[in-house]
């Protein structure tokens, strides 16, 4: 198969490196172009990274000698590729403008950034939950005046440990959710080397994260209405997001009440049997089982469970009845795989399978 050529915008960063690693030997996509800031432009990828390689696996040979381009050199980057992944760190307005500029060159953008998550005609997709939101792309293309260029985004890393299971339980109508997230430092693009203050420490603030954790699930659970996505109105979610001394893996401690309270057995059955379009279509990165339930009292644990289904799955444990709410449980997901680059790769696979991303 002739692979689709891909650019990674922000390819030198933490999420960008994860894209580059995940796409090594990908059956459909091939990284042919990498772009970053003017600081990196003109250097080989290996030189631009220098000592900043943050992945456990070595840098793929095929990308080492790619000459890094400047993200702002839109035409020059776009003409080389069929579509791009975006993981640049710039201001929200700059990211909005640059992603739209790429889309207008007829180059689809699958973004990890939050800038366009609330643009009314940009789909924010968890492929197992709301693949049908891709249909809003037609309205977006009309607005942008494009025939194949568009932007699609994935949601924030914090919601992946609890939003999928709430969706798997939708027939029981979750009404109220209280969630506390315990978030890894890689979610801030950091390792312990870059952020030594995080060793033996907890920081009870992650800028903007609580609003995202409360609101983004509702847009994912929403539906298309004309030229926009209308968010769902339930469940009501309140959250606290806390940075903890963990490299990879966001844990969530969750309380939930339902309009139709189910038994514990029903909840477990629904979550482990839940699957969606990625499993039906056999997408290359799709986890075989999206959500696993662990019976042991001391699971899920970051050390044991973060890489479940190569980091594309979600682990749930400690489901039990609560005194104030109906149930409580603990969830875990990999924040830079399912929560960032991997979630975007799965989204791009879905968009290719549905014919939105094609060869130029
Ligand atoms: N880490 C996560 O788990 C996660 C999850 C969800 C969303 N995000 C979001 O994804 C984005 C990237 O995150 P990250 O953790 O990978 O950040 P990062 O490690 O700091 O990487 C930032 C990337 O953006 C590039 N960049 C910075 N300033 C630029 C400029 N003025 N023009 C062009 N490129 C520029 C950098 O290039 P140079 O190397 O040349 O400086 C680098 O490639 C951020 O917006 C972040 O909020 C991250």
Structure commentary:
It is a single chain. By secondary structure, the chain is α/β, with parallel strands linked by helices. The chain is built from twelve helices and 14 strands. It has helices at residues 14-22, 45-49, 61-64, 74-78, 92-104, 137-144, 163-168, 209-220, 264-273, 277-281, 302-305, 337-353, and strands spanning 4-9, 29-36, 69-70, 83-86, 109-111, 151-153, 174-183, 223-225, 228-230, 236-243, 250-258, 291-294, 314-321, 327-333. The protein is globular and about 60 Å long. 50% of the residues are buried. The mean pLDDT is 97. NADP nicotinamide-adenine-dinucleotide phosphate (NAP) is lined by residues 10-16, 36-37, 39-40, 71, 87-90, 112-113, 157, 186-187, 189, 335-336, 339-340.
Give the spatial strand order of the biggest sheet: 3-2-1-4-5-6
In angstroms, what separates the terminal alpha carbons? 15 Å
Report the CATH topology name of the largest domain.
Dihydrodipicolinate Reductase, domain 2
Proportion in β-strands: 15-25%
Number of separate structural domains:
2
**What's the gyration radius in Å?**
20 Å
Question: Can you summarize this structure?
Answer:
The protein is of the alpha/beta class and 360 residues long.
Relevant terms:
27% helix, 6-stranded parallel beta sheet, single chain, binds NADP nicotinamide-adenine-dinucleotide phosphate, Rossmann fold, 2 domains, 360 residues, globular
């Amino acid at each position: 198969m002739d692979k689709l050529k891909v650019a990674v915008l922000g390819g030198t960063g933490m999420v960008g490196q994860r894209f580059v690693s995940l796409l090594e030997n990908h059956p459909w996509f091939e990284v042919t172009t990498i772009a970053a800031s003017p600081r990196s432009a003109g250097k080989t990828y290996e030189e631009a990274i220098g000592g900043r390689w943050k992945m456990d696996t070595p840098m793929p040979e095929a990308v080492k000698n790619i000459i890094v381009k400047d993200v702002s050199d839109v035409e020059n980057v776009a003409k080389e590729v069929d579509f791009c992944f975006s993981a640049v760190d710039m201001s929200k307005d700059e990211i909005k403008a640059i992603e739209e500029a790429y889309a207008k060159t007829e180059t689809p953008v699958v973004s990890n950034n939050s800038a366009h998550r609330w643009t009314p005609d940009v789909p924010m997709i968890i492929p197992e939950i709301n693949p049908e939101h891709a249909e809003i792309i037609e309205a977006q293309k009309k607005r942008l005046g494009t025939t194949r260029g568009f932007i699609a985004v994935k949601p924030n890393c914090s919601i992946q440990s609890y939003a999928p299971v709430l969706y798997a339980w939708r027939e029981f109508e979750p009404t109220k959710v209280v969630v506390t997230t315990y978030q890894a430092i890689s979610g801030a693009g950091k390792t312990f080397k870059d952020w030594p203050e995080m060793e033996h420490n907890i920081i009870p603030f992650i800028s903007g994260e609580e609003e995202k954790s409360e609101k983004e699930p509702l847009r994912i659970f929403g539906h298309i209405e004309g030229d926009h996505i209308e968010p769902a109105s339930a469940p009501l979610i309140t959250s606290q997001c806390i940075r903890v001394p963990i490299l990879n893996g966001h844990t969530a401690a969750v309380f939930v009440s339902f309009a139709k309270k189910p038994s514990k057995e029903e909840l477990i059955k629904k979550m482990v049997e839940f699957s969606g379009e990625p499993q039906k279509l056999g997408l290359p990165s799709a986890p075989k089982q999206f959500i696993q339930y662990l019976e042991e009292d001391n699971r899920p644990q970051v050390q044991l469970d973060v890489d479940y289904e190569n980091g594309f799955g979600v682990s749930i444990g400690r489901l039990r009845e609560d005194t104030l709410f109906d149930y409580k449980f603990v969830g875990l997901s990999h924040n830079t795989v399912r929560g960032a680059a991997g979630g975007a790769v799965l989204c791009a696979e879905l968009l290719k399978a549905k014919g939105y991303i094609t060869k130029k």
